[in-house]
C-alpha cells in the first residue's frame, strides 16, 4: 500500500514507511506489502482504514533539543508521552492507555528502528537507542491493526533513519539548555548513483553526545549514541541494507516523591543520595535487510538482527528487607543477548476483476538473559554503606522466544470499497533457570508459555475523492514480561506463575477528510480487555504485578494538520479517553473497585501548535499542551493535577552557496507552571510523582555543507 498526504504536506513523508504494517488498502501495484509507503503513484492517506500519524524527521528537529521523542510526539492523538526527567528509567509512553503502568521502559506497544525491534520478545521495549539526529520519519499506528505485530495491544511506533542520497552532505549541530544540558552531534550522508544501477551504494552515519546536570537533585546523565546505515544495489532486482546502532548511558535516578514532597520542593531527591541510585546501560546491535523482486507479482524480504544489552542498576532498598533469605538484593545486573529473523513473501494478483494482495511470513525472535542480584550495601565498621555492590543474592538465566507466523490480504472489492484482513498466531515462551539455591532459598526455576490467535479486519468506503470512512476490528494480547514474572506478590521466590496474559478486543470507526491543503481525521473506538496486567505494588525500585479482571477503554481522537498562506501551519489534536475497571479486585495495598479509572492515564489531552517556517530566513512557533488529571493508584486516592503549558521557539536559517546555518532559541513552560511530568503507578510508599521542570531555556545551532 502507498500513502500520500496532500501536496502541501508532502514534506511529512518521503519514502517507504511503517515496516511490518499490513498492506492496508493495497493496490495491486504495491511493491512491498506489510509496508506503508509514500509514492507519487500510490493511494492517498485517505485510503488507510487505521489511525496512522506520521512525523517527518526535519519537523522533529526544528528548533528542538533533539534528545527525546517527547519533544515533538506529544501532539499526536491517542499518544501520551511523558518525560520523567529521569534518564535511568526512559520515557513513559502509552497509546490509548496501554503502557501507562510501566514503571520504566516502554510497555504495551511495539517499537521498531529501521525494521529492528526495540521491543524484546516478552514485550518490554525502550527508546534509548533512537538517535533523533538521524531520524528520517516516525510513524505511529493506533488501533486494531496493531494486533498484527504480535505481543502488543496499544499500537506500533516505527522509526526509519535517513537513507543516504546525492548530493553528499555533512552536518554539525549543538544545543545548550537549562540545568547544564548540552548536546552535540555530527552527521554525514551520501550515495554513489541514484540506487537504480548495480553497485550503487548509499550511506548515512550519525553520532551524538548528550549530558545534563538534571532538573532535580541526583539526576545527572550522560548519553552517547551512534547510528549507521549502508545500502547497496546487488543486482537489478535486489538490494542489501546493513544497519548498526550503539548507545552508552550513565544516569542517576532521582526517584519519585510523595504529594507533600513535590509540593514542598519538586527538585529534591531525599533518598537518592543516601543509596546513590543510578543506572548504566550499554547496547550494541547490528541488522541486515535483504529485498528481492522475484517476479512482477512476487516480492521477498528478509530481516535479521542481533544485539547485546548490559544494564546495572542500584536501587533505594533499605537493608532490612534485603536480609530476608528470598530477597534478590538492591542491585540488578543484567546481560541480554537478542536476535531475530523476519521472512516475508508478497504476491499480487487478481481474482476476476478484483485486485488482491497476499502476504505471508514468519517472525522468530529470541533473547537470553543473565540476571544477577546483589545487596546494594557493604558493611563498614558495623554500619551499612549503601550504593556499593555487596553479596550475591540472585543468579539466574532466562530464555525467551516468540514464533509468529502471519498472513494478510487486501481486496479492492469495488472502486469505492476495500476489505483488508489478517491473522497472526503469536507464541511467547519463558524458561527460567535458577542458579542461586541455598538452604533458605530453594530452586525457583520455572517456565511459562502463552499463545493467541490475533485476527484483524477492516472495511473502507470512499464517499468522495476527498472523504473516506472506515470500520475495523481486531484482537490483541500482552504476555507478562520477564520483569513482571520475576517477582511474586507474596514476597516469595520463583516466577509469578499466577500472572496471565491480557487479551483485548477493539472496535473502531473513523473518518479522514481533505480540507484544502490539510487533513482532518477522527477515530472513535472501544477496547475491552480481560486479565488486564496492573501493578500490584511498587516499592523500593521493584514492582510486582497482578491480573485485574476486565477493563474498558472508550475514546475519541481528533486531529487537524492544516497548511495555509504558503509557510504557515496549524496543528490541532484532542483525545478523550475513558479508561475504567469493570471488575472489583482485592489487594492488600491496591484494591480495585469497579468504575475506578485506570491509573497513569489522562482522560483529556489537547495540543495546538502554530508555526511560520519558510525554507530560509526567520521562523518561529508557539505550542500549547493540556493534560488532564491522572490517577496515581488503583484506588484513585491520589492524583496528579491537570495542567497546561506553553512553549515558544524562533530562529533564523541562512543559506550561502553550499552552506546552511540554522540558529534558534526556545523557552518551555513559559509561564513557569508547577506540575507533575509523570507518575509511578501504585508506588508502595506513596512516592508516585516525578515533577516536571519549571520555565527553562535553550539555544542551538547547526551548520551543514553539501558537496555539489
Overview of the structural elements:
The chain is mainly beta and 708 residues long. The chain is 4% helix and 56% strand. The chain is built from 6 helices and 39 strands. It has a 22-stranded antiparallel β-barrel. Strands 3-8-9-6-7 form a 5-stranded mixed beta sheet. The chain has a two-stranded antiparallel ribbon with strand order 1-2. The longest helix has 6 residues. The radius of gyration is 25 Å and the shape is globular. It starts with 15 loop residues before the first strand and ends with a strand. The N terminus is likely disordered.
Strand content: over 45%
- The termini sit apart by 34 Å
Question: Unreliable segments (pLDDT under 50, ≥5 consecutive)?
Answer: 1-44
Average of pLDDT: 88
User: Percentage of helical residues?
Assistant: under 10%
The largest sheet, given as strand count, sense and whether it forms a barrel, is: 22 strands, antiparallel, barrel
Specify the structural class: mainly beta
**What kind of oligomer do you see?**
single chain
Output the number of helix runs. 6
Tell me the number of strands: 39
Nearest-angstrom radius of gyration? Answer: 25 Å
- Overall geometry: globular
Amino acid at each position: 500500500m502507498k500513502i500520500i498526504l496532500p501536496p502541501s504536506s508532502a514534506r511529512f513523508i518521503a519514502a517507504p514507511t511503517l515496516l511490518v504494517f499490513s498492506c492496508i488498502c493495497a493496490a495491486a501495484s504495491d511493491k512491498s506489502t506489510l509496508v506503508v509507503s509514500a509514492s507519487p503513484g500510490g493511494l492517498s492517506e485517505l485510503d488507510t482504514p487505521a489511525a496512522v500519524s506520521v512525523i517527518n524527521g526535519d519537523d522533529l528537529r526544528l528548533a528542538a533539543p533533539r534528545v527525546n521523542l517527547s519533544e515533538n510526539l506529544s501532539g499526536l492523538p491517542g499518544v501520551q508521552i511523558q518525560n520523567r526527567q529521569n534518564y535511568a528509567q526512559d520515557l513513559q509512553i502509552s497509546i490509548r492507555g496501554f503502557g501507562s503502568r510501566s514503571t520504566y521502559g516502554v510497555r504495551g506497544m511495539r517499537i521498531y528502528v529501521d525494521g529492528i525491534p526495540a521491543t524484546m520478545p516478552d514485550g518490554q521495549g525502550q527508546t534509548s537507542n533512537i538517535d533523533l539526529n538521524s531520524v528520517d520519519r516516525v510513524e505511529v499506528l493506533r488501533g486494531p491493526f496493531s494486533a498484527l505485530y504480535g505481543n502488543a495491544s496499544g499500537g506500533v511506533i516505527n522509526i526509519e533513519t535517513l537513507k543516504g542520497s546525492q548530493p553528499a552532505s555533512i552536518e554539525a549541530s549543538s544545543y545548550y539548555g537549562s540545568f547544564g544540558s548540552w548536546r552535540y552531534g555530527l552527521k554525514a550522508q551520501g550515495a554513489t548513483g541514484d540506487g537504480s544501477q548495480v553497485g550503487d551504494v548509499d550511506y548515512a552515519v550519525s553520532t551524538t553526545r548528550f549530558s545534563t546536570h538534571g532538573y532535580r537533585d541526583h539526576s545527572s546523565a550522560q548519553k552517547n549514541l551512534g547510528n549507521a546505515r549502508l545500502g547497496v544495489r546487488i543486482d537489478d532486482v535486489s538490494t542489501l541494507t546493513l544497519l548498526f546502532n550503539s548507545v552508552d548511558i550513565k544516569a542517576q535516578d532521582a526517584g519519585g516523591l510523595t504529594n507533600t514532597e513535590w509540593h514542598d520542593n519538586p527538585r529534591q531527591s531525599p533518598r537518592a543520595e543516601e543509596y546513590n541510585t543510578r543506572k548504566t546501560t550499554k547496547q550494541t546491535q547490528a541488522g541486515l535487510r535483504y529485498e528481492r523482486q522475484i517476479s512482477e507479482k512476487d516480492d521477498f524480504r528478509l530481516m535479521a538482527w542481533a544485539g547485546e544489552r548490559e544494564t546495572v542498576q542500584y536501587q533505594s532498598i533499605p537493608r532490612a528487607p534485603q536480609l530476608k533469605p528470598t530477597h534478590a538484593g538492591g542491585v540488578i545486573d543484567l546481560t541480554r543477548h537478542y536476535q531475530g529473523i523476519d521472512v516475508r513473501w508478497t504476491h499480487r494478483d487478481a481474482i476476476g476483476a478484483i485486485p488482491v494482495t497476499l502476504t505471508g511470513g514468519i517472525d522468530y525472535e529470541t533473547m537470553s538473559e543473565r540476571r544477577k542480584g546483589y545487596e546494594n550495601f557493604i558493611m563498614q565498621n558495623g554500619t551499612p554503606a549503601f550504593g556499593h555492590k555487596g553479596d550475591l543474592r540472585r543468579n539466574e538465566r532466562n530464555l525467551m522466544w516468540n514464533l509468529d507466523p502471519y498472513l494478510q490480504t487486501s481486496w479492492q472489492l469495488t472502486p469505492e470499497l476495500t476489505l483488508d484482513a489478517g491473522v497472526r498466531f503469536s507464541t511467547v515462551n519463558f524458561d527460567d533457570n535458577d542458579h542461586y539455591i541455598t538452604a533458605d532459598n530453594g530452586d525457583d526455576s520455572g517456565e511459562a508459555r502463552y499463545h493467541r490467535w490475533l485476527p484483524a479486519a477492516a472495511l473502507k468506503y470512499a464517499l468522495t475523492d476527498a472523504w473516506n470512512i472506515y470500520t475495523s476490528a481486531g484482537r490483541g494480547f500482552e504476555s507478562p514480561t520477564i520483569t513482571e514474572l520475576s517477582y511474586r506478590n507474596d514476597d516469595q521466590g520463583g516466577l509469578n506463575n499466577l500472572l496471565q496474559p491480557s487479551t483485548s478486543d477493539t472496535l473502531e470507526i473513523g473518518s479522514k477528510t481533505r480540507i484544502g491543503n490539510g487533513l482532518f481525521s477522527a477515530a472513535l473506538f472501544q477496547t475491552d480487555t480481560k486479565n488486564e496486567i496492573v501493578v500490584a505494588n511498587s516499592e523500593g525500585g521493584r514492582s510486582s504485578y497482578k491480573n485485574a479482571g476486565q477493563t474498558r477503554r472508550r475514546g475519541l481522537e481528533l486531529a487537524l494538520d492544516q497548511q495555509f498562506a504558503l509557510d504557515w501551519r496549524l496543528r490541532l489534536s484532542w483525545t478523550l479517553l475513558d479508561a475504567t475497571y469493570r471488575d472489583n479486585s482485592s489487594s492488600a495495598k491496591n484494591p480495585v473497585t469497579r468504575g475506578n479509572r485506570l491509573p497513569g492515564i489522562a482522560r483529556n489531552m489537547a495540543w495546538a501548535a502554530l508555526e511560520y517556517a519558510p525554507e530560509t530566513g526567520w521562523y518561529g512557533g508557539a505550542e500549547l499542551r493540556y493534560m488532564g488529571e491522572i490517577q496515581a493508584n488503583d484506588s484513585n486516592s491520589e492524583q496528579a493535577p491537570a495542567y497546561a503549558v506553553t512553549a515558544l521557539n524562533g530562529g533564523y536559517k541562512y543559506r550561502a552557496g553550499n552552506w546552511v546555518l540554522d540558529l534558534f532559541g526556545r523557552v518551555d513552560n513559559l509561564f513557569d507552571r508547577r506540575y507533575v511530568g509523570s507518575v509511578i503507578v501504585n508506588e508502595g510508599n506513596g512516592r508516585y510523582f516525578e515533577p516536571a521542570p519549571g520555565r527553562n531555556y535553550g539555544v542551538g545551532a547547526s551548520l551543514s555543507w553539501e558537496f555539489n
